[in-house]
Amino acid sequence: MFQRALFLLLGAVAALSLSACGGKSDEDALMEDESSTTTSTATGTAAAAPAGAPAAAAPAAGSATVTGKVAFDGAAPTMPQIKMDADAFCKGEHKEPVYEQEVVVNPNKTLQWVLVYVKEGVTGTYPAPTTPVTLDQHGCQYRPHIFGIQAGQPLKILNSDGTLHNIHALPKKNAEFNIGQPFKGMETVKKFDNVEVPLRFKCDVHKWMGAYTGVFNHPFFAVTNDQGTFEIKNLPPGNYVIEAWHEKYGTQTQNVTITGSEAKTVDFAFKG
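Above: the chain sequence. Below: its structure as tokens.
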């Protein structure tokens, strides 16, 4: 009897010792299990977003189109003729005189090379295309003279001439670069990270060579053609500020409201 009582007393003391020296109560064990389950769910690949959490901004689908033209008011200025005598290859590429492209007035009294784009009102995120925009050095001129590109979109710089060219980008909000391309067929791919209008290019070998781009975080931009017209497609409904930029005459803006799948006309006019 005495031995049995002694055995029970020793068992009780052992239980107290375990509890006091690191043993877990039922409540502690339950809290630890809940904590482990929460961490596993939060870090697992199949974790669900909390109810009511805001979704990531996505571009709104649109099917509206903004078209227009850029008229020129006044006498067309005479552009200086480009003298290419310093490079025999460049000179030999042109049978007719070549003129600077700062102001190109079309026969119908419109302006070519005007960059037209949505300046304000775009919402959502528009991923950059993976298809590159090509800036060619052909006939010792940049082609195209003016163009648009999205931030993060590849810019393929091509030398189509059998002479040395270099392309010197002179941005204010992006990284500057200056690349030599001594051989025909050479290509270099670059990207711009930040929105910037305008961004200028020049060639340090041929001083007459120059071009501009606009870098955007959306695809809603265009450049006027040899008829002075432009077209911006796939705009979703919204209130927008449309801006036209010309390298000599500056900028003009207009407001436009898109309510559905409609076609809106926005015209500009620059005075010489």
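Confidence is low (pLDDT under 50) at residues 1-56.
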